[in-house]
Amino acid sequence: YVADKVVSLQKPFFNCCAGRFSVVEAAIKAGVPPQNVFASDIGLFSSIIGYLADPSKKLDDLGIRILDPALEPRGIADELEFAAHVMLILKLNQMKQTNLRGLYLREELLASWDRSRDTMRQQLETLVQNIAGIHYEIADIWDVVSRVSQEDVTFYASVPHYARGYTKMFAAPNLKWNE
Predict the structure, then answer these.
(1) According to DSSP H, which parts of 43-112 are helical?
(2) Which residues pair with 157 in a beta bridge?
(3) CB atoms near residue 39 (< 10 Å)
(4) Confidence of residue 174 (pLDDT cuts 50, 70, 90)
């Protein structure tokens, strides 16, 4: 419904808190030209996707540094594989270490890292191909709202809707980047 509505309005489409870019992907599949899509977010996860999909951006500009030697990438063939590697680290960081289930999930991910990275790379490649050509910026929703509120645009925000959403998303003690 949202994607069809965005298409029918025929205006530049701004999606703040882009998250996994599912709304952006749906809007483009429904007919919004990628060059009319302006996505933003403040997290590393979304910024990786946005930088890969925006032709004016380079992933290297995010300045991602892995601080844990045990998680240093090995055998990385290209930037999509590096991006998948970093996303797996973000996933690992979100897994609880305070209960047995969380510890087992972390152990399982670490044991299947190469296979998981390949899967993540394939999913990322498909998404990036589907949204290639969009505009992306690292920006807080309120900065974007104040900038475009007087313009004739379509605006959609995909804000986190679970307890401690931002706290969980931004817990990355083993990563640094140019936020």
Answers:
(1) 44-53, 79-94, 100-111
(2) 16
(3) 29
(4) confident
